[in-house]
Design goal:
By secondary structure, this protein is of the alpha+beta class. It has a single domain, classed as Carboxypeptidase-like, regulatory domain (Immunoglobulin-like), CATH 2.60.40.1120. Helix content is 18%, strand content 36%.
Length: 118
């Protein structure tokens, strides 16, 4: 009886995980860009690179809205980098991100912060 119970719980966990993945695998990446003072950076260009075995391959770019928000859709890369840039305000560091599964939806915890370069 104990083995059947453990097997049933394991099957339920696997089914639950697979259901969660199905509803969260649209390839959406959302975030914000702010300037050095923390104000929204409207009109900044955000670039998305897919990390391959040896390089970073450019895949997409988008501009931020008035609130500094940006969104990428349909980006299935498991391991990728983001960088924001705006004329006069500088660029953010190129930051690497890793998802648990391909196409996992991701909302960035921290905004991309622009800083003046050398």
């Amino acid at each position: 009886m104990r083995y059947a119970f453990v097997l049933g719980i394991t099957a339920a966990l696997v089914a639950g995980w697979n259901a969660w993945v199905v509803f969260h695998d649209d390839g959406i990446v959302r975030g914000r860009v702010v300037d050095a003072a923390g104000r929204p950076a409207a009109g900044a260009v955000v670039r998305f690179w897919e990390k391959t075995l040896t390089t970073l391959e450019p895949r997409a770019s988008t501009a931020t809205g008035p609130d500094g928000a940006f969104v990428f859709t349909g980006q299935a890369a498991h391991h990728f980098a983001l960088q924001a840039e705006q004329r006069g305000l500088g660029a953010s560091p190129r930051t690497l991100y890793r998802r648990y599964f391909r196409g996992q939806n991701l909302v960035l915890d921290a905004p991309l912060r622009l800083r003046a370069g050398p």
